[in-house]
Specification:
By secondary structure, this protein is mainly alpha-helical. Among the domains are: 35 residues, no CATH class; 65 residues, no CATH class. Helix 3 runs antiparallel to helix 4.
């Protein structure tokens, strides 16, 4: 299949084909063809009618990330395809954001060193920030302190009761 430059048009700038004065019937094919082929050629559509190019599919297969099931979406325009893709990626984005927030809330220091744990939490926070979800350093610090465990309760109590602003240094 050939690939080349693709013209992007909005619905208001789509080319319009001339209306035909004669409808296709069994006895007027030659006359009808003499009207329709030049109109199609002027818009570069004749190659789809003659079979020189394969028509783009009218169906878009969308696979659910959660269930793995495939859904067929019937599309007749590029706008419809982009709308479906946008909805799909919005749901993936929301799921990813929820997953990262859940990781921030549930990740514990456990057997990691402090520096490994803080780095892991900072990476999760950076991923959230990179995806457009704004989170302050203080908010990230609260998540980090929450996951330290009971052996750090005294340190956490001192840090959270201190009135000075605490910021996380870049690793």
């Amino acid at each position: 299949m050939e690939t080349g430059p693709v013209a992007v048009t909005s619905p208001s700038t789509l080319p319009t084909l001339p209306s035909l004065s004669v409808k296709l019937q069994e006895r007027n094919y030659t006359f009808w063809k003499s009207q329709i082929l030049p109109a199609l050629s002027s818009h570069g559509l004749d190659v789809f009618v003659t079979g020189e190019k394969v028509c783009p599919p009218m169906f878009l297969i969308v696979t659910s990330e959660e269930t793995g099931e495939k859904n067929v979406a019937k599309c007749s325009t590029a706008y419809e395809i982009w709308s479906i893709l946008e909805l799909h990626f919005q749901s993936v984005f929301k799921a990813r954001t929820l997953h990262l927030r859940n990781l921030l809330q549930t990740t514990k220091k456990d057997s990691c060193s402090i520096s490994e744990y803080v780095l892991k939490m900072k990476e999760i926070g950076d991923e959230l920030n990179a995806s457009g979800v704004s989170m302050s350093d203080e908010e990230l610090l609260l998540y980090i302190l929450d996951g330290l465990g009971p052996e750090y309760d005294v340190v956490v109590a001192n840090l959270t009761s201190n009135s000075s602003v605490i910021t996380i240094q870049e690793a």
